[in-house]
Amino acid sequence: MRPDMTPHMTPLVFLAVCLFMRETACTPEEKKTQERLFLSSLGLTGRPRPAGSHQLRHHVPSALWRMFQSSEKIQIQESDDCMVTEYGVRGNIIRYVQDQGSLESGRSSSCQACLEKELFFNMSVLQDVELLTLAQLELKLHWKPFRPVDLLQQPKPLRLSLYKVIRLTLTGANPQVNRRLLVSQSVQLQPESTSITIDLTLLAENWRKPGRNYGLVLELLPHSSEPGELLLFHPGNSLPFAPAVPLPLIQASLVVVSLNPHQCRSRQKRSAVRLPMIRSNVCKARSLYIDFRDVGWQDWIIAPQGYMANYCHGECPFPLSESLNGTNHAILQTLVHSLDPHGTPQPCCVPISLSPISMLYYDNNDNVVLRHYHDMVVDECGCR
Ligand SMILES: *[C@@H]1O[C@H](CO)[C@@H](O)[C@H](O)[C@H]1NC(C)=O
Ligand SMILES: *[C@@H]1O[C@H](CO)[C@@H](O)[C@H](O)[C@H]1NC(C)=O
């Protein structure tokens, strides 16, 4: 890699140029450094290595796909891109943080017929600079009856209670004293899935402090006290009894919207112009498509699969024509360079206008993340 090319590209473009351009050679160390630089500009300390295989992974929530697709479409708007209109809060990162709590049933001493589920959301995926603006718990309850005849039954009313756990419980101690009720509401257990959303922004902010996150407990309790109904949530696997009714499946995720203030400014208009591949030595934007498969990132970047990143390359000769978008300083520098080519270099061909893209990816905890990144596409070049 020629050293004079280095400062004129975003780290990702540099990395791609390392990989694709035959006339330039990057050492493996240079590649590593560039990859690290790019990842850190995405707010990542390393290349995410999602654990699950492709089949086992959480699929991308449809709400997130919709936001990704609409952010692709509305790039031309001059709007504030640090506003997440879907949720009406400021932010430029949207994560679906997956629940890591375990399922317990009927263990609680106070409630033999209850289904209890621990919920735990690891908030350390947020960087310290990020301001949390929204944390919304999304609960989905599905219930698949064993027998077709159960489908004909009335939906079963349940009481859903959500507790925050305020400290660790030692074995043998009463867990009830270590929790505080947050919400309690009625839900209908029915074959179609039921969704519930609960705002947990303040609590989630508190969870970011070290040693403060003991998670939540979700409790489902049959409304009626008929003896038959009480079997509804009889402990499943661990006891010899089969449950009278299959346990509902509980899916929980925490939608976390946060704002990285350093990556926030009003969105520039993206030019839709395709760059021509003209062989000329004069400074201009050159087309460069970065395919994430070629960089080996297809396993953590969900979308897009690649994008037109482009790069600036070429000479800034004397006299500097207007189309080269030179500064007065660059015009004088070309003049001096023409008089003394060895003493003073030519001005450099650099991006003068860049535009953002949106990316959907898996982080190390297998959470799906949607982020907008500035300065990812070179639109125009100039001599500086
Ligand atoms: C939360 O995630 C961080 C980093 O991803 C990890 O180091 C930590 O062990 C996790 N904490 C828990 C309780 O799983
Ligand atoms: C200079 O800017 C104009 C528009 O402002 C653009 O059309 C042109 O391509 C730019 N020059 C280069 C070398 O990119």
Strand content: 25-35%
By CATH, the topology of one domain is Jelly Rolls
Termini, distance in Å?
Answer: 20 Å
If you compute it from the alpha carbons, what radius of gyration comes out, rounded to the nearest whole angstrom? 28 Å
Average residue-wise pLDDT: 78
Determine the structural class based on helices, strands and strand pairing. Answer: alpha+beta
Largest sheet: 7 strands, antiparallel
Shape: elongated
Helix content: 10-25%
At CATH's second level, what is the architecture of one domain? Sandwich
Count of beta strands? 18
| Poorly predicted sequence stretches spanning 5 or more consecutive residues | 1-7, 227-242, 267-273
| Heterogens | 2-acetamido-2-deoxy-beta-D-glucopyranose
GO molecular function: cytokine activity; growth factor activity
Protein name: Protein DVR-1
Main location: secreted
Keywords: Disulfide bond, Glycoprotein, Growth factor, Secreted, Signal
